[in-house]
Design goal:
It contains 12 helices and 34 strands. It is α+β, with helices and mostly antiparallel strands. The strands form 8 sheets. Strands 2, 3, 4, 5 and 6 form a 5-stranded antiparallel β-sheet that branches. It starts with a helix and ends with a strand. Residues 1-21 have low confidence and may be disordered.
């Protein structure tokens, strides 16, 4: 039995324990059962856990009092994430000899936690810690598990769930195969799924599946040069489907091992990958790219020196030149002493998901969510909670534009092989903002030719620019609009008057696509523009805060055209006294001029005039008409 006991020692995590067994004597195990047990141990030592399971079952069938066989089978099933069977076997072994079982309270607790029975797990791990003369390693392991169970219990108390059901759905044979699939990413239109597939010991390929009516087409290799190199991994697709960013250890002029690369969609497929350069990449490891919906911000993970742990999250801003700015660490509130990986920025541009094994959680790596506040600053990370997070490692997560459906990789029981891609519905309190999106073309109002322009989305409450999208060379654009707030949507290009429109979405649900083709008028004498978002309160000429986004666009035009002169005009409807209306409209126009001069525009380039109710543009007999007549505008008076 000496060799048998040595093998048992290899299988346990415990290094100092009482051997005063009460009802179980290993020396009395039937020889036939012991021989089969040796076979099972060999399989376990070789890493063939599945093959060891039926052999261990044979041991128990031969000798129903073979407690070590129960314990080893429970451990093997726990490795296979068959937690319920594992727990049942541990409890069977405990019933046969509670004293011999004492040191197995730790793995027993882990499998209880695997079932979500965290309070029972806490009792079990506390029983383990009560054993005298435990090794330092055993104590440290148990105390770590105890802290995770306590976290789980506290989280459940603080986040009571009523009717939410976590029910991941395998994306099916069209997407998943016998190898591992992971790192899912979806376009804002939820029409294309992009992911990574393991196709060899070291080779990973990038795949795509077209989504039609929520059904996934047969996954295919992504076209173009992007799949030539074997050593590549994490991938993300831009919200408009025009860019792919990925991590790769490519041959050629890389800066380190794994760098981040960009490939763009062309008529011939995806272009040859371009290294993002030394502002993003270093001689160290960079991976897990995530691109904001306006393609201005890049989030990624790196193990470069100067961080707060092993791998930290960093951020880089795309400059007007198209180059990427120097990467900035996202700070100690977001990064930990562990590893932060797999960031995903949602289409609302306000919600970021990522994984961490250093923040408080359920064990190993958990998924977390970050949200921006009204000042545009990231808040504190929030654990997504059980059962999305478990005692295992959770991988990358992607969320559809509607904020309802999440995609992630898991090796659940219905996996086609190793990691598969699954979808599930997010719990309401961890969902990002739902979004709708606007797409269209920006053209010259005279020639009708598409023109490259800048499209901005500004939060009317905070006056923060949430998104800033550059159209393509033909003037085509796509921008997401998160619901739940009111926005000013502006389009501008040097040499043209800007376009502006208000989207009041604070009380509207997410909707489908808006098609909005926009004509920009060249800056020329007598060209005029009506402010859509400068809505003065009744009988007031105090400048409303939600109109500042439009005024910022006017400031930009005046700065781009330093000889341009404009008149600010105020207008009212015909309600009330005409003389009072004239005075009120003049004061409102003057308030705008005063704001512009405060922002550095020379006063000799600005004039103002109140027209009262003398220049209606709609019928004053209807409320909608009167609303149109109550307006302020500017007109070009000098070039």
């Amino acid at each position: 039995m000496k060799n048998h006991k040595t093998i048992i020692g290899l299988l346990t995590l415990f290094f100092a324990y009482s051997s005063a067994a009460q009802g179980y004597d290993p020396d009395k195990v039937k020889p036939q059962a012991l021989a089969r047990y040796e076979d099972a141990i060999s399989l376990l030592k070789d890493g063939d856990t599945r093959a060891a399971v039926p052999v261990l079952l044979d041991c128990i069938n031969i000798d129903s009092n073979f407690v070590d066989a129960y314990l080893s089978l429970a451990g093997a099933l726990g490795e296979l994430k068959q937690y319920q069977r594992s727990v049942s076997l541990y409890e069977k072994a405990k019933s046969k000899d509670p004293v011999y079982f004492k040191v197995y309270h730790l793995p027993y607790s882990i499998n209880l936690a695997g079932l979500g029975r965290f309070e029972d797990a806490l009792v079990a791990v506390s029983a383990f810690l009560s054993i005298p003369n435990l090794s330092e390693r055993g104590i440290k392991s148990a105390q770590y598990r105890k802290s995770t169970y306590q976290f789980a219990i506290q989280y459940a108390q603080q986040h009571p769930v009523t009717d939410y059901q976590f029910a991941p759905v395998n994306l099916g044979d069209s997407v998943n195969g016998p190898r591992s699939e992971y790192y899912p990413s979806v376009t804002v239109t939820d029409s294309l799924l992009v992911f990574t597939r393991r196709t060899g010991d070291q080779r990973e390929d990038f795949m795509q599946s077209t989504i039609t009516n929520k059904r996934f087409g047969k996954a295919e290799l992504i076209d173009g040069d992007i799949n030539i190199e074997p050593l590549k991994g994490a991938i993300t697709v831009s919200q408009d489907g025009e860019w792919l960013l990925f991590a790769g250890n490519l041959s050629g002029p890389g800066l380190g091992g794994y760098d981040i690369y960009l490939s763009q969609l062309t008529p011939q497929g995806w272009s040859e990958p371009q290294n993002l350069g030394s502002s993003v990449n270093t001689e160290f490891w960079e991976s897990s790219p995530a691109l904001s919906p306006d393609k201005r911000l890049l989030y990624f993970s790196s193990n470069r020196p100067g961080g707060y742990g092993g791998r930290d999250l960093y951020m880089s801003v795309r400059l007007p030149s198209g180059r990427w700015g120097q990467a900035i660490n996202m700070g100690p509130k977001i990064n930990s002493a562990g590893d932060e990986l797999a960031p995903f920025i949602h289409a609302d541009n306000q919600t970021l998901f990522y994984t961490s094994d250093g923040l408080p959680g359920y064990g190993n790596s958990d998924l977390f969510v970050l949200r921006k506040n009204d000042k545009g600053e990231w808040g504190l990370p929030e654990n997504l909670g059980y059962p999305i997070n478990t005692i295992e490692n959770e991988g990358s997560l992607a969320v559809s534009a509607d904020g309802l459906t999440a995609y992630y990789a898991s090796d659940r029981s219905d996996s086609r092989g190793n990691l598969d891609l699954y979808s599930f519905q997010l719990r309401p309190n961890i969902r990002p903002n739902r979004t709708l999106y606007v797409k269209g073309k920006v053209v010259d109002a005279k020639t009708k030719q598409g023109i490259p322009s800048t499209v901005e989305l500004t939060d009317n409450n905070s006056n923060l620019v949430l998104m800033k999208v550059q159209t393509d060379e033909l003037g085509d654009y796509l921008v997401t609009l998160p619901t739940g707030k009111d926005y000013t949507f502006t389009v501008n290009r040097k040499g043209y008057l800007f376009y502006s429109e208000v989207y009041a979405l604070s009380r509207k649900e997410a909707d489908s696509t808006y098609q909005k083709d926009i004509q920009l008028n060249p800056v020329q004498l007598n060209a005029s523009f009506v402010f859509n978002n400068i809505l003065f309160a009744t009988n007031s000429y105090a400048l409303p805060g939600n109109g500042l986004a439009e005024l910022q666009q006017l400031i930009q035009i005046l700065q781009d055209n330093p000889t341009l002169k404009v008149e600010i005009s105020g207008h009212t409807d015909n309600t009330g006294n005409s003389k009072d209306n004239l005075t009120l409209s003049a004061n409102r126009a003057k308030a705008i001029v005063d704001y512009l001069t405060e922002k550095g525009i020379e006063s000799n380039r600005l004039s103002y005039k109140g027209y009262g109710d003398t220049q209606p543009i709609a019928d004053n007999n209807t409320e909608s008409g009167r609303a149109k007549n109550r307006r302020t505008s500017f007109t070009v008076t000098g070039l």
